[in-house]
Amino acid sequence: MLIGHGIRLRHVEEADLDRLIPLLNDLERRGPYLPNLLTPPAQLRQKFQADGFSTPDFERLLITDEADKLLGTIWHFKSVPYYNAREIGYVLFDTGARNQGVMSQSVRLLVDFLFESTHLNRLEIRMSTDNLPSERVAIKCGFSKEGVARGANYVRGRHVDMCVYAMLRSDWAALRA
């Protein structure tokens, strides 16, 4: 478990599935920037039973408050096979927790953990060019904009451009110094 100020990042437990699965399929709570894909609850349960949402190529953590209220989820995954990198994704389901620094703190906790515990050299956050809140998170956490991937994602019936932000291990070390 990763512990911050008023939040925790922890692995999903079986007891969380009844709360988590409806949120993963709640398009309104997920917001307008993620693809509007629905995953059958039985498939999500099977995936959890198989690997607990944690493999060498993909790991999902819950974002909770100190009372274990589910606020959101954050994940990291290997997006480009030949990169020594991970991409970070996240969603804050609790709309009342938005604009309170929860996601910035969650990203910082995960970034610190990944650089402290792995040999990764690069972390990326990609978001729709319209997703200004996510762009603010990336900037607050010290990621640098590298460019725009045109038409890279399909969200709610249209192809969208994606901002690409990255942080190298050397950037992270400089921020900590």
Task: Describe the protein's architecture and organization.
- With 177 residues, this protein is α+β, with helices and mostly antiparallel strands.
- It has one domain: Gcn5-related N-acetyltransferase (GNAT) (Aminopeptidase, 3-Layer(aba) Sandwich).
- The protein is 32% helix and 34% strand.
- Strands 1-2-3-4-5-6-8-7 form an eight-stranded mixed β-sheet.
- The longest helix is centred in the middle third of the chain and has 16 residues, at 102-117.
- The protein is globular and about 40 Å long.
- The model has no long low-confidence stretch (mean pLDDT 94).
- Its EC number is 2.-.-.-.
- InterPro entries: Acyl_CoA_acyltransferase, GNAT_dom, Ribosomal_N-acetyltransferase.
- Residues 7-167 form the N-acetyltransferase domain.
**Which whole number gives the mean pLDDT?**
94
Using DSSP, what is the number of strands?
8
Low-confidence stretches: none
- The CATH class turns out to be Alpha Beta
Largest sheet: 8 strands, mixed
The CATH superfamily is Gcn5-related N-acetyltransferase (GNAT)
**According to CATH, what is the topology?**
Aminopeptidase
Q: Provide the helix percentage.
A: 25-40%
> So how many helices?
6
Shape: globular
Strand order of the largest sheet: 1-2-3-4-5-6-8-7
Q: Structural class, please?
A: alpha+beta
In N-to-C order, the SSE pattern is EEHHHEEEHEHEEH
Q: Please give the CATH architecture.
A: 3-Layer(aba) Sandwich
N→C terminal distance: 25 Å
Which strand-content bin applies to the residues? Answer: 25-35%
| Integer tally of domains | 1
Protein name: GNAT family protein
GO molecular function: transferase activity
InterPro entries: Acyl_CoA_acyltransferase (IPR016181), GNAT_dom (IPR000182), Ribosomal_N-acetyltransferase (IPR051908)
Enzyme class: transferase
